[in-house]
Each structure stands twice: as C-alpha cells, then as structure tokens.
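Q: A reviewer asked whether we had any structural model of the full assembly, not just the individual parts. We don't, so I'm hoping you can provide one. Inputs are below.
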Amino acid sequence: MAVTSEVSADGSKLTIAIKGRFDFAKHQEFRNAYEELSPPPACVVVDLKDATYLDSSALGMLLLLREHAGGDESDIRVVNSSPDVRKILGISNFDKLFDIN
Amino acid sequence: MERLWRLQQTVLQQRDLIAEHSDYLLNEQRVAKAVFDRVAHSGCLDAPNIRYLQSPYALFNGDLLLAAYTPSGDTHLLLADFTGHGLPAAIGAMPLAEVFYSMTAKGYGLAEILREMNAKLKRILPVDMFCCAALLCVSAQRRCVEVWNGGMPDGYLQSGGQRTALTSQHLPLGVLRADVFDHATQVLPMVPGDQVFLLSDGVIDTCGPDQQLFGVERLEQVLDANRHPLQLIAEVEQALRDFQGRARDDVSMVQITSQMPQLLGVPATLYTDSGLCSPLDWSASFEFRAASLQQFNPLPYLLQLLMEVHGLRSQGPVIHAVLGELYSNALEHGVLGLDSRLKRGNEGYARYYQQRKERLAALHDGYVRVSLQVERAGEGGRLIVRVEDSGEGFDVARVMARPLDLDRLSGRGVSLVRQLCPAASWGPDGRSATVEFSWGALA
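A: Here is a predicted structure for the entire assembly that you could use as a starting point for your response.
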C-alpha cells in the first residue's frame, strides 16, 4: 500500500504515511485514510519519510485534510519530509498552515 | 456463436461511444482554449518592453499571464499557476483576469487587487484548488518595482550588475480567508533599463532523461551566463531543450524591462454617460483619518469622481499620477514622518517600507485632507486640488531650490509633481500642496 494509516491506541492520533510520489494518483487512498474515522482524531500526523516527490495536487489534498480536521482549529503535523519535499512546502509557505518539521 | 457475436457488437458500440466522447471533449477544449487565449492576451503583453514565452497549452495546464497599464503609466504584470490541469484550472482564470484588468484600469494598487483576487478565488474554488501567483507593479517614473509572490518559484530582479531573488513569502491565492490574507508587498529600487524575470514551476521541474529535475541551480547558471538580456528567455528555452531533448508543454516565462511611458497611461474608457451632462461648479473636501489611512486607498474613488468632469478626462493619467504622488507624500512623509533619504540602495528601500508598515499599523491620529474645487473659466474650466496633512511639514524653500533631478532614487515625489504640473505650489509650512489643471472649450 502506498498510503498506510494507523490510529493510536486511545484513538486521539492518526498517522498517515505516504510512500513514493505524493500526487493525484493517491487522492482516493489519502481521503480514505481519514474520512471514515469516528470520532475524528484530535491530531493527524502526515509522515513523508518515504515520499519521494510532492506536487500541487498533494498540497490540495493536505488542504482538504485540514478542512476536514477543523480548519484553523486543526492540529496537523507534517513530519520527516526530505529536503526536496520541504522546498516545495516552503515555496507555497505551507508552514503557515501546518506544523512542518 | 451467439455469445461471440454479442461480444463483438458490444465492443463496436463501446468503440463508437468512446470516439464520440473524445470528439466531443476535443471540441470543447478547442472552444475553451480560444476563449482563454483571448482572456489571457488582451492587455499589454505585446508592449515592446515585455517579452514572454508561453507554451501553447500552458494556459490549459493552469498558467496565466496578464499585463496591463495603470492610469498613471505603471505596468501591472501577473504570472499565475492554478493547481490542477484542464478545465478546472482554466475556470479560475476568468474571474482572476476580470479583477486584474478592471481594477488596474481604475487605478487600484496591488494590495487592493490581491485582496479582491484572493477573496474571489476563496469563494469560488473548492478547498483543494488554489492559485500560485506573482504580481508586479513596475514603475519607471517612481523607479521601483512592487512585488507580491505567493507560491511561485523565485523571480529575479536584474538591476545593474546585481541580481535579487524575488522569493515567495505568502500562501497562494484562494487558500486563506479574507480576514487573515496577507497582502504585504516588497518594494525594491528598479530604474529604467532594469529587468524582472518571472517563471512558472514548469521551468525548474522539467525532467531530464534520468528523472533529474532541471532545478534552480541550472537556471541560475543560465542567468549568470546571460550577456544580452533580450536573449534570456531564448537561452533558458535552449537550456531546457538541451537538458531534456524536447520542449515541455507547460512552461511560462516573462521578462519586463522598466521603461518610461511614451504617453502617460491610457485615458480610462469606463464612462457610463454619453457626454451630455458634466458637473461644472462644485467643491468637495475629504478628511481621511488614521483608521482609514491604515487600510483604504481613496485614489480610485477620487479619480472616478473627477472623471465625471468631461474637460478633465483627457488629463486623467496626469491627474492620477500627480494625485498619487501628493497623497503618498502626505501620508508617508507628513502623517508617518518617514524620511525619504532612507530610500538609498536596496537595503534602505526595504527599511523604508518596513518602517512604513510599522508606523501605519501603530497610527492613532493624524489625517490627510483632500479638497477638490471645480469651476468654470471662460469657455472651459479648472480643477484645483489641495492636499494637506497633519505632519510636521518640510523645508519648502530648500526642496524647491534643488534642481529637477529625475535620476535620484529618493525624494522623487516632489520633482515628479513639479514636472507634470508646473503650476504646483506648496504652503510655506510644508504641510499642504496645491495643484491646478485647466481645460479650454470642448469640441
């Protein structure tokens, strides 16, 4: 699976890990990872350790996730991004919306 | 046998259906492209000081390039890139172009235009769609360029032998709600002959045969090697071809050279009446106080009001430029007490605009008053404008004694006003300025 998800034991944290190119092809899988969860987790971690590339539709998918998780109230962390991926997030200034490290 | 026959029938039917759908789609694309090409290519992209390259289907890949003159003769230039491809991306291009052209023609500044574009896109686009954009105002007269970059790759200002990167400092358009959107721009010195080069991410994301990206470093090598600015776009294109072996279909580049306008702007043509009634004897006075000065640009409204007077229409661009200078002088040097001598060199510019932002945000009192008086005079008439501020004033005699030097970077406002409007005068305390425009009998 290119997108895997895991909910912490207490249900408060969802971790979504992306493998390979993070682009439109992963659209459905990415949504499936968070949409059906009830109750929604308080915190979502997007792990990009194995993501090789990220395009603008992936940025769009992150925005959809943010909206779903409560917009300004959401707690979303984007972790383990490679320098190339971080550059893309940086150009779009997505660090103003997401906790990126 | 029967089953085989039915299978063949189904396959044939589906083939025809697919062909029909494909024809239909291709035709839709052709029509849509024709419309978008017209949207994207009105304006002044063909001006002699603008060079650009847009692959034929760049727009269908979400790239949009627009240019237009402001009423006072500056140039607004927009390079934008919608997420997604095809029709969804192109749909957003329409309202964006509409806002860009109409607000530029009415004399709005970048901040107002950006706020409107962002609010409009936020309202109409789905959450996962947005628009990366770089917007410029190139002013040869004020010898500067104002930049806003949200999500586009670094652009480059080439000034003398120096290259400055114009880096993205904002989220793309259509992401943030109107109340948290940041329209803060950067202002840099740019004298006639200097150039700005903007590009879409198709340029740096062009993929080589071994999946390597062209990247910023290779691009900067081309910029370093460039000897004739007018060849730059062709050189980048060649470098991409050498790197990849074939041209990509979503590459956009644009280069603008700062150039004094031949004719000062184009008179606005947005009049609603047929020319029979014109207000000829009136006066009005406005006082803009702190809370207004912080977030409101009164110039487009004042200009629109003045353009109801037919005799003034042909002078619209000059009136706009003069009013613009007087207003920003009153605000920046008067109310905010900024020293224009700060504006020397790149760093000074940045410091000046940083201080402007800080002082404006902290402003509690102070005002700019604008009085307009229109009266008949013989067969024609005249307009008298007086702009007054609550500041300390300046040493009028000393400033007036300076030669009309147009090559300085600082203190240009007064020179520009005196050049455009010889009848300009300043009150002895340096807190008010008066200019006059008259017209003769109308044909």
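A: Points you may want to mention in the reply: Residues 3-100 of chain A form a domain with the Transcription Regulator spoIIAA fold (CATH 3.30.750.24). The two ends of chain A are 24 Å apart (CA to CA).
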